[in-house]
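> forwarded from #structure-qc
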């Protein structure tokens, strides 16, 4: 249930809420994704090995560890979101993310402090995981509860669109830095620059989010046992949330955010890999709002199933195109169905649940699925490439998205109903 807003104020609150959700989310996406994008440059600084693939695997293992912290963050920050308010949860997530980015930017290397360098990196990545674990439920609930009826799909698509576009500056920065600096300079100090920028942006995002309007009725939306309520009262929805989020985060972090590292392992130059990733990220981010508005007209379920089925179809050909040296075509092929699915899935899942379960309840199962599938995606793709089986990763994504499309078809259509109190 949302707090009533004075008649003269709605448009101002809508605008401020949209900006707070968009800017803060983009900043967190930038901070989170630069790890995967720049991993190929700093891996040997923390995990010096004679075999570059082994070093990269160790770095992506830390990437996965960050995802393991997301369920904890979803519970801790979800409690703040459900009990203190959406605004408090949104502010806390961007604060933690900024602090962790500063920590990585200033982290000592293995040459300076030995194994403690890896400990610092893991600690900062865990902190980022806590932040992102609470971000989905806080911002997702806020945007859906703020949106006017009949426009929730378009309004809520701000979240996935800005998350995707938030990775664009990271990819563009990677392309620029790899052009301006030599390979040795990138591995020496160039990789620290994006983390420093991310920390500074996070401070700005904190000030923006502190001024947003609160949408939660703190007296009406209390749930003492949200996890039990999800499993007992909404078991089918809980299962579908887990399946759909797992498939989409696998696709996003395996074939878009983690694409530069995958492409380089398959013989694509770093410059071409970053250029393809930048173009695909831009296209995906721009398509998402259009697809979100379409879901307001044709329905959530149809939009979500179409995107997931499309990903299942193109995953294997996309890997083949990378192997053939056609990185740009591969990325553009992935970006269209990914945009369709991303546009519909957040608003669809939030609309399935009452307000009391949109914090801890939704956030926990979202984070668990993201940790198991999205968090391990770069590690799995790198390992399969090292084994000479890159096509196997494409089949992995295809099967996961196919199952998710079937699961999503079982969801209740909510696009044309009033939001549940």
């Amino acid at each position: 249930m949302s707090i009533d807003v004075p008649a003269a104020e709605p448009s101002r609150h809508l605008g401020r809420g949209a900006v707070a959700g968009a800017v803060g989310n983009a900043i967190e996406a930038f901070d989170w994704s630069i790890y995967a994008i720049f991993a190929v440059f700093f891996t040997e600084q923390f995990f010096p090995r004679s075999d570059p693939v082994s070093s990269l695997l160790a770095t992506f293992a830390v990437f996965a560890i960050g995802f393991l912290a997301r369920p904890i963050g979803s519970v801790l920050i979800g409690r703040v979101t459900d009990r203190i308010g959406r605004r408090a949860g949104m502010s806390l997530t961007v604060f933690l993310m900024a602090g962790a980015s500063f920590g990585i930017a200033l982290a000592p290397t293995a040459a300076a402090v030995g194994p403690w360098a890896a400990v610092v990196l893991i600690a900062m990545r865990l902190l980022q995981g806590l932040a992102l674990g609470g971000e989905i439920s806080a911002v997702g609930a806020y945007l859906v509860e703020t949106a006017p009826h009949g426009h929730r799909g378009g309004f809520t698509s701000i979240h996935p669109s800005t998350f995707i576009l938030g990775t664009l500056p990271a990819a563009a920065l990677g392309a620029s830095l790899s052009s301006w600096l030599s390979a040795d300079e990138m591995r020496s100090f160039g990789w620290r620059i994006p983390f420093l920028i991310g920390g500074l942006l996070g401070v700005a995002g904190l000030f923006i989010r502190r001024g947003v309007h609160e949408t939660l009725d703190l007296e009406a939306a209390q749930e003492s046992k949200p996890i039990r309520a999800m499993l007992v009262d909404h078991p089918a929805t809980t299962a579908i949330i887990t399946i759909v989020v797992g498939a989409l985060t696998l696709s996003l972090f395996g074939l878009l955010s983690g694409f530069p590292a995958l492409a380089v392992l398959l013989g694509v130059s770093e410059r071409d890999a970053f250029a393809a990733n930048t173009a695909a990220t831009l296209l995906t981010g721009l398509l998402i709002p259009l697809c979100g508005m379409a879901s307001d007209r044709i329905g959530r379920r149809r939009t979500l199933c179409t995107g997931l089925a499309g990903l299942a179809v193109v995953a294997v050909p996309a890997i083949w195109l990378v192997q053939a040296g056609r990185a740009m075509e591969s990325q553009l092929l992935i970006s269209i169905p990914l945009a369709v699915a991303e546009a519909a899935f957040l608003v669809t899942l939030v609309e399935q649940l009452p307000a009391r379960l949109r914090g801890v309840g939704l956030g926990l199962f979202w984070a668990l699925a993201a940790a198991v599938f999205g968090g391990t995606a770069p590690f799995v793709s790198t390992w399969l490439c090292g084994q000479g089986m890159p096509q196997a990763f494409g089949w992995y994504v295809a099967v996961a998205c196919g199952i998710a499309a079937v699961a999503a078809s079982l969801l209740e259509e909510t696009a044309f109903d009033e939001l549940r109190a």
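QC bot note: The chain has one domain: 10-215+223-408. The CA atoms of residues 55 and 105 lie 19 Å apart.
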